[in-house]
Amino acid sequence: MKIETLSTGEVFLYSLVGLVVVIASLAVLACMIMLISKLVSRFASGKAPEAPAPAAASKPAAPAASAAAKPAVMATAGELVLRDVDDQTAALLMAIVADQTKIPLNELRFKSIKCLNP
Prior knowledge:
Blueprint lengths: L7 H38 L17 H7 L11 E3 L3 H15 L10 E3 L4
Parallel strand pairs: 1-2
């Protein structure tokens, strides 16, 4: 039984072919992921995405009026008392309440959070 060895040129050629195959398959996979993502977002919204309107035809936004209607408040809402609750659990509870009530977290005021089952 005779075993043949590969020359240095053949080794580099096989390595190059393998590298090209891996990179090409990754590129095809990335394209498939982008295509599937676009299809899913199109069907999830229920309609095809519309092309953006030209700048001249679009309605001008009034940022000054919306800013005047809702002034930015940078004040705190007071002290929060945690009773038998760690900070991470309290933050999670506040986020859940904000999500369920559809009220932004910065508009809610929590006075205290207490563990009912210590």
